[in-house]
Amino acid sequence: MADETLDPALINTSDGPVLIVAAAKQETERSSGRHQHCRGQLFGSMRGLLTIGVDEGVWVVPTTHAIWVPPHRVHWARSHGPFHGFAVYVAEPACATLPAAPCAIRMSSLLREATLRAASWPPGPFDAPAGRLAGVILDEIGSLPADPLGLPLPRDARLLRIAQALLDDPADGRGLEEWARWAAISDRSLSRRFASETGFTFTAWRQRARLMRALEMLAEEVPVTRIALELGYSTASTFIALFRRTFGVTPALYRDRFQSAPGSEAGTR
Description:
The protein is an alpha+beta fold. It has 9 helices and 9 strands. A hairpin with a 2-residue loop joins strand 3 (40-54) and strand 4 (57-61). Residues 261-269 have low confidence and may be disordered. InterPro entries: Homeodomain-like_sf, HTH_AraC, HTH_AraC-typ_CS, RmlC_Cupin_sf, Tscrpt_reg_AraC-type_HTH. Keywords: DNA-binding, Repressor, Transcription, Transcription regulation.
């Protein structure tokens, strides 16, 4: 998230430098409501966890990844627990060669270090070295592979109502048939359309929503057993086993990783 001292007018114009980079540290959670601006934005963190949302989906972002949002796209953001992060605002003309849709990218060490250097630049026009480094940052944003980290949202209003209810309460244990009745849609249509519009079956999407909420709770230092029970798992061991299958590590180790120093976990190409 951007530094609170950054003038909002700077990110609502493409005048000035091609990049504006801001950094922020805080020990408490921070959020920004739905908004848009004429510059594209890259969200990332060195410590802690971010949740970024757009109309099409939601991402829970550990320090290994960053989220790109193109110009004029409505989005919102919030941090979880202690947080140290950055925002890169890209002038609209320079976004022509960058991803056209919001996406998650795996952070490279080069992108992370270049961004941190740029965050220390004084306001004003770039000198030659700064201009070259800005080009490196743009090249990295444009060339790093997208990562399917997020949770796509359905477009159908009835399905979107179900998805939003599950995001509000991932532990809701109603089955597909009950949700279909609640949203006034046939269970067969719900199943078929959910898969076609999100790329996930209804059951897989709900499981992914629960795991994304688990990541947020881990960042907030909620005990693993409490996370399991609050998200509707029958036992902590069931939750831990599913988490390990999905992320390759236990919840406790995952929490340690995204709270550790960025150099120990920075992504590479």
